[in-house]
Amino acid sequence: MKILGSGHYVPKTIVSNDDLSKIVDTNDEWISSRTGISTRHISDGEGVSDIASKAAILAMEDANINATDIDMILLATMTPDSMLPNNASIIQKNIGAINATCFDLNAACSGFLFALNTANAYLSSGMCKNILVIGAETLSKIVDWSDRSSCVLFGDGAGAMVVTVDDTKAYYSVSGSDGSKGHVLTGGATLLKNMLVNKDETNIMTDDYYMHMDGQEVFKFAVTKVPECISAVLDKASLGADDIDYYILHQANVRIISSVAKRLGVSPDKLPVNLNKYGNTSAASIPILFDELRKNGTLKDAKRVVFSGFGGGLTWGASLVEL
Ligand code: UT7
Question: Is the Cβ–Cβ distance between 81 and 47 less than 8 Å?
């Protein structure tokens, strides 16, 4: 599998740590020192399918490919605008990719990685030739804006890649899930409301509609699991940590990223960070960072990168891609 091109889009409105200190009991010093986040972009009306379509168009331009040559659109998101139609199909309509088969996939912050694995499987089987893989979120709609322990962490955004068949480029991946720990990161739950139950409820949103997180549990899980799955993917490829040019990690907390660098024994320069600008954009964070590095020339001479993500489910994974 080869990455032909990439693109990203974030909503215009920037919300600073100082802005948040006006709505919850927090401050710039706490947020910056505990997370590395300074600002995040928040949608003032655009939905996931809008921002994803914009990222997709930029990725197709970068890949120099026509929308009609895309035969699949995979959208990783946990904040779709609707369940029906699936949002990948809305993107298809927006960008004119009339020959694409379209579906959404949800694995929280690991979603983009799992979508990339899915794309690789479709390409390897010969079922598809050019796939648009997108990670996009409007997390601002499930964030509890009165909960200072979580609302300061997240942002909205979209990143996309066009991937194609290339037998000369290796792709290795490892991934996993642990449903028994699902309770540490929850959100988006709605009520079963039909003629048999909850007939009188006017609202289908439950207390679990908004995101709840046991931050310390997620932190402990991430600093153990991410280096573990990166080491496993390196073993699969028979490569050492230094053979990788860049580790493009899910952007959740700068302390998690530093800890992973230490555990892998590589320079922190190999683990670029942009969460200071965007916060945690869940499924969008890896493709947004990849696109920034590609467009600013950082990846010019790079031969191999490792993507690694972790999040709700719990889910995790690492993928090694040859550029
Ligand atoms: O994509 C995956 C999603 N999630 C993650 O990756 C999150 C992983 N976890 C983390 O990044 C960190 O655990 C957090 C950034 C969420 C929290 O950092 P922490 O160092 O684990 O802080 P804490 O939860 O232990 O809280 C320390 C203190 C508490 O006060 P007391 O009990 O010590 O008086 C909190 O109430 O900080 C307080 N606190 C805040 N203070 C100011 C929590 N949130 C805030 C806040 N502003 N926004």
Answer: yes
Rounded Cα distance between 319 and 307, Å, is: 5
Residue that has been written with the tokens 């699936």 in this structure: 86
Instruction: With beta carbons less than 8 A apart as the criterion, state whether 62 and 5 touch.
Output: yes
Of 3.10.350.10, 3.40.50.150, 3.40.47.10, 3.40.50.720, the CATH number of 171-182+212-322 is 3.40.47.10
pTM: 0.97
Domains 2-164 and 171-182+212-322 share a fold: yes
**What's the chain's length in residues?**
323
Mutate-to-test residue for ligand 1 from 147, 183, 219, highest number of ligand atoms within 8 A of CB: 219
pLDDT in tens, the chain (323 residues): 999 999 999 999 999 999 999 999 999 999 999 999 999 999 999 999 999 999 999 999 999 999 999 999 999 999 999 999 999 999 999 999 999 999 999 999 999 999 999 999 999 999 999 999 999 999 999 999 999 999 999 999 999 999 999 999 999 999 999 999 999 999 999 999 999 998 888 888 888 899 999 999 999 999 999 999 999 999 999 999 999 999 999 999 999 999 999 999 999 999 999 999 999 999 999 999 999 999 999 999 999 999 999 999 999 999 999 99
Catalytic residue among 17, 86, 117, 280: 280
CA nearest ligand 1 atom 43, residue: 149
Question: Active site residue: 109, 128, 151, 229, which one?
Answer: 109
Q: Topology of 2-164 in CATH?
A: Peroxisomal Thiolase; Chain A, domain 1 (3.40.47)
